[in-house]
Amino acid sequence: MKITPVIGLLVLFFSLAGCATDRGLAPDLNGDQISVTIKVPEELIAEEMQVMYRSKLCTFTDYTASGVPYLRDGYKRTDIQPVRMGQTDLYEANLAVDGGGACQWRLSNVTFGVMYKDPAQFGDGVVYGAGGGIIVMFDENNPGRAGVYKKVEGDLILKKDYYPWVHERFIGGHKKSVNLTGDGHIYVRYQALMARSVYFEPVLHSGFVARSVGPKVKSEGHRTIYYYPDGSSSPERQIQPSFRKLQAIRLAAEAQE
After folding, report:
1. How many domains does the chain fold into?
2. Residue by residue, what is the 3-state secondary structure of the chain?
3. Does residue 17 lie in a domain region?
4. Rounded Cα distance, 102 and 108, in Å
């Protein structure tokens, strides 16, 4: 039977459409890698890392706020648990830059951090909340979480102070949580285009606990009250304790020792 050019093109079209691209990751473990190392304090544990890859081959259609369609790079996430290095307090993961596969995935960013091992040490019913998170961007793509970022040349070495913060919430349901509060919000973001090594050392000041109690009704004049380790307290609009005040309280106490 003779196949006309039009029928031939239709056959070719449906053959290609029916043969979906395998979008799986196939990282090159012998290729270029970025090491991420976390020095974990005794009371904390390393969270699972969220590693994002992007592809310019496997795109998808997204829409602007006005409904105009446009193509975006494809993205795919994989989660990696950092591994303890011997009997040390260092935990490490190696991230393949080349994600491989038919989509030719490339490493885009990694989200990682630390959290409390035992939130119940702060009281019955206390759960872990948030904080202690880091996002490192290895390309020009926005990782999807709001916030500004710092640009870093070369490898990234971070040493950051954190304080325990116990918050009691009433609006939306009663809940007590312990958080890690530091210089920034839940996630602190960095862009390190040339990095091949990332080192994160969170310094936990366990003896300086901040506490807060949220309002019981949502109305003007009702604010969260923050209680600081020096005995002071104040109602404030901010969503976390003042890092500068906590630093000042700790440094003053250490100076008197």
Report:
1. 1
2. CCCCHHHHHHHHHHHHHHCCCCCCCCCCCCCCEEEEEEECCCCEEECCEEEEEEEEEEEEEEECCCCCEEEEEEEEEEEECCEECCCCCEEEEEEECEEECCCCEEEEEEEEEEEECCHHHHCCCCEECCCCEEEEECCCCCCCCCCCEEECCCCEEEEEEEEEEEEEECCCCCEEEEEEEECECCEEEEECCCCCEEEEEEEECCCCCEEEECCCCCCCCCCEEEECCCCCEEEECCCCCCHHHHHHHHHHHHHHC
3. no
4. 17
- Is 187 in contact with 135 (CB distance < 8 Å)? yes
pLDDT of 124 = 92
Q: How far is CA 125 from CA 43, 219, 224, in A?
A: 18, 27, 20
Which pTM value belongs to this model? 0.86
The predicted model gives 214-220 an average pLDDT of 82
Task: For residue 118, give its domain range.
Answer: 23-256
The per-residue pLDDT for 93 is 97
pLDDT at 189: 94
| pLDDT per position as a tens digit, 127-162 | 999 999 999 999 998 887 656 889 999 999 999 999
Q: Is the residue at 213 inside a domain?
A: yes
Place of tokens 């019913």: 125
In a domain, 243, yes or no: yes
* 74 occurs within a structural domain: yes
Query: What confidence score (pLDDT) does residue 12 get?
Result: 32
